[in-house]
Write a structure and sequence with these properties.
This protein has 26 helices and 9 strands. The protein has 790 residues and is an alpha+beta fold. β2 and β3 form a beta hairpin. The strands form 3 sheets. Strands 7-8-6-9 form a 4-stranded antiparallel β-sheet. The chain has a 3-stranded antiparallel β-sheet with strand order 4-1-5. α1 packs across α12 and α11 runs antiparallel to α12. The protein folds into 3 domains: 326 residues, no CATH class; 176 residues, no CATH class; 144 residues, no CATH class. This is RND transporter. It is found in: Cell membrane. Keywords: Cell membrane, Membrane, Transmembrane, Transmembrane helix.
């Protein structure tokens, strides 16, 4: 193999006339109007940069759920009656100095209740605590049934009043649900409105949680009262609050990549222009998002880094070829034009493949993932312009410094012993065992990923670490209260004014008894459980009467005064709330299957059993959508990207060589997730599609270079060695650099960011190794008859 650097190959187009004409036209238009191009990008950058300043974090409850799924359609149809069990916060107020039945603490609790009540976004009519009028007790006496407010109107805080409140709490059966088992804390249940009834605007979860933090948590913590908040809105609020940490890690990653890029090219000019162009891509992406009316939700907030990573991946190829051309005596302008001519087709194809990979996420009917797809696709759209047009023009002015050229000269005269060994993978004695080993890895990946689970696998919020404030608060609630926070609501639908009919009540009762036998269901709350108690109460507390009655008058009387969360005003919707041990995917699946089996087994007549609401019901629907969409998404990713690669290279064999390493990386990534206990969920599902989209860049650039040398008549081993010296170094540098950059995410306080970082590290490295070793090995074996071998 020659140690001299050959003339840089030009891309051999499949349709020379049309493609050369287009590339030639773009080249002339670009480099003959460099000042105009720079002015255009300067103006666009100022406009979009200014627009980016108005971009705000954004989150919505409805975007976090699959609104097209039947479960969610049922929930939205009956949202008014179901909201108290779905989008709800639990504000725990703890007395660190003793029990809650203390005059001073009870006054503090009243103030907490009032402050929460007036925060915009609270469904005030359904808010419930010890102090609200809907907190009622009922008891059976020899004189009949009596009831009243838990905190009576004549409460004055003395010992007798406090004793009365404690008795009322016991009568209302609120211990373990609204009052801690040890009486040291109590809960304010806060249902939220998705839209402001006055303005019609969506609830701003960031602003809401900031107001809650300021008005309640900070204010009362300063008074010595411990406030804990559990619920979806608090999760989103904490994620949005962590945006500063994400920005810090982004800055650290950019700094690390900048240093490594300089060490690679030893040219501050190229390094500065490359990094600034990549950052400009991110700024323009954010500006376009703002102009299009989008925000950055907590799960899309990492996308700007991915766009930066894509930019670095393409820019390194540009720098590498630019240095090589100038090393052969070309001026900066000539080198830029040659680089543009050589990289425009493979670069555009790679970016198109990236965009396709991102857009396939649109098949997942969850708003937050679809917005992530749109956000990433907009970023790739911007990258096409900044990397394909702006960067070559800038490099034509700055060129490469003498120190950078010295580095290039050193590389050009190096014997490259490592790459000489690597290039031997195209020989059959190395290629065949490598391919066989890869197939064994693929088989192991198939076996290991059988344990891959859908949904959350841990208690609490998986977005945060176990010692985070939210998960510590959630653990406190689980330790001190009996009632679970994981609520699965079955919607029992009847014709109007028939929910209290014996036939309806009997069917619902049978379903409740059936569901109590399901593993993971701890207790049930429903209208019919309340009605049985009232029938018992109206019959002197005799246990023999603790049953539903065929007498409609008795049933109607028992329904009167039922809480609004148990039945709608028309007596046609009676939610049945199942309190679960956890929200793991297996538990949710068992409940869903049990409800479905009951509905199938019994003749429901005019009645309907609909799933599902409650936070656990909504999560069950999300898991179902993810499970059904994951395989479709991966199929589309590989089919469409394969079509793009096939269109580019016009060869099925080349397409197989490029796509097989990516597929093996994907399967191994899923196997790793299974072994590490990472479930497939909103936070992790997009990573694979993003990894495939970025990983295909390596293969397209490398094979384009290899094909160019092969078309010059070089033998396969020599051609691959020359491709390694140029594009191969860029691929290796990019893969290692990006992996090191995202590896810093493992220190993030956000567990989902750490998980995404770990998965991206693996995909970056595996895709790099696959492109450098497995791709040429497969290509050399598949095309032995087309190109000469040693």
């Amino acid at each position: 193999m020659s140690t001299q650097t050959p003339k840089q190959p030009e891309r051999q187009e499949h349709n020379p006339t049309s493609m050369q004409r287009v590339v030639g036209y773009l080249e002339r238009a670009l480099f003959h109007n460099r000042i105009a191009v720079l002015i255009f990008f300067l103006v666009a950058s100022v406009i979009l940069g200014y627009a980016a300043l108005s971009l705000r974090p954004d989150a919505s409850f409805t975007r976090m759920i699959p609104t097209g799924h039947p479960f969610i359609a049922n929930y939205l149809k009956f949202e008014d009656v179901l909201r108290p069990q779905s989008n709800v916060l639990r504000v725990l107020v703890e007395n660190p100095n003793g029990e809650i039945l203390d005059k001073q603490f009870m006054e503090t609790l009243r103030e907490v209740n009032d402050r929460v009540f007036y925060i915009p976004g609270v469904d005030r009519g359904n808010l419930k605590s010890l102090w609200t009028p809907n907190a009622l007790w009922t008891e059976v006496t020899t004189d009949g049934m009596r009831s009243g407010r838990v905190i009576p109107d004549d409460y004055n805080g003395d010992e007798q009043s406090l004793a009365q409140v404690k008795q009322n709490i016991q009568r209302a059966n609120m211990i373990g649900s609204y009052v801690a088992n040890d009486f040291k804390s109590t809960i304010i249940r806060v249902p939220l409105l998705e839209r402001d009834p006055e303005t019609g605007k969506l609830l701003d979860y960031g602003a809401f949680t900031q107001e809650l933090e300021k008005q309640v948590r900070d204010h009362f913590d300063a008074k010595g009262v411990k406030i804990r908040v559990i619920g979806f809105a608090q999760i989103i609020g904490d994620l949005l609050a962590a945006a500063t940490d994400i920005a810090i890690y982004f800055a650290i990653t950019v700094g690390l990549i900048t240093v490594l890029l300089y060490l690679y090219c030893r040219c501050w000019r190229s390094t500065a222009v490359t990094v600034l162009t990549c950052l400009l891509t991110v700024v323009c992406q954010l500006g376009l998002l703002s102009l299009l009316g989008y925000g950055l939700d907590p799960y899309s907030i990492l996308v700007p880094f991915l766009i930066f990573a894509i930019g670095i991946s393409h820019a390194v190829q540009n720098i590498n070829l630019m240095m090589s051309e100038m090393g052969q005596g070309a001026t900066p302008l000539e080198a830029s034009r040659r680089t543009f001519r050589a990289l425009f087709i493979p670069g555009s194809t790679a970016l198109l493949a990236d965009a396709v990979g991102f857009m396939t996420l649109l098949v997942i009917d969850i708003g937050v993932i679809q917005q992530l797809a749109i956000t990433a696709s907009i970023g790739v759209f911007v990258a096409i312009f900044t990397k394909m047009f702006l960067l070559p023009v800038l490099m034509s002015y700055v060129g490469v410094s003498p120190k950078g050229m010295a580095q290039q000269h050193k590389r050009a005269n190096s014997s490259w012993p490592i790459f000489r060994r690597v290039a031997r993978v195209v020989e059959p004695r190395y290629a065949l065992p490598l391919i066989a080993f890869s197939l064994v890895l693929l088989g192991y990946g198939y076996y290991a990923r059988e344990d891959l689970k859908i949904g959350d696998l841990d208690k609490g919020a998986p977005e945060f670490r176990a010692d985070s404030r939210y998960n510590v608060d959630n653990a406190y609630l689980l330790d001190h209260y009996t009632t679970s926070t994981d609520v699965f609501v079955v919607i029992f639908k009847t014709p109007q004014e028939q929910c209290a009919r014996f036939n309806a009540a009997d069917l619902a009762n049978q379903m409740e008894l059936n569901l109590l036998e399901v593993e993971g269901v701890e207790s049930i709350q429903s209208l019919y459980k309340t009605m049985r108690f009232k029938i018992l109460a109206h019959n002197e507390g005799n246990p023999k009467w603790a049953e539903l009655s065929r007498d409609q008058y008795v049933m109607n009387t028992a329904r009167v005064g039922a809480p609004s969360e148990l039945v709608d005003p028309n007596c046609s919707v009676a939610p049945i709330s199942l309190y679960l041990a956890d929200h793991k995917a297996e538990t949710l699946t068992r409940v869903v299957n049990a409800v479905e089996a009951f509905s199938t087994r019994y003749d429901l007549g005019d009645f309907e059993i609909l799933q599902a609401a409650g936070n656990a019901g909504i999560e069950a629907a999300t898991n179902i959508v993810i499970e059904h969409s994951e395989k479709l998404m991966l199929l589309l990713v590989f089919v469409i990207i394969s079509a793009v690669v096939l269109w580019e290279f016009r060869s099925i064999k080349v397409t197989i060589a490029l796509m097989l390493p990516l597929y093996i990386s994907t399967v191994l990534c899923e196997a790793f997730m299974a072994k590490m206990g990472l479930g497939v969920k909103i936070a992790t599902l997009p990573v694979i599609a993003l990894g495939v989209g970025i990983g295909v860049d390596y293969g397209i650039y490398l094979y384009s270079r290899l094909e160019g040398f092969l078309n010059q008549g070089m033998k396969f081993g020599d051609a691959y060695f020359e491709a390694l010296k140029t594009t191969g170094t860029s691929v290796a540098f990019t893969g290692i650099t990006l992996a090191m950059g995202v590896a810093t995410w493992s220190f993030s306080a956000l567990k989902f960011q750490a998980d995404m970082g770990l998965l991206l590290v693996l995909l970056f490295i595996w895709n790099m190794v696959g492109a450098l070793l497995l791709l040429p090995a497969i290509a050399s074996m598949l095309m032995r008859n087309k190109y000469p071998h040693d």
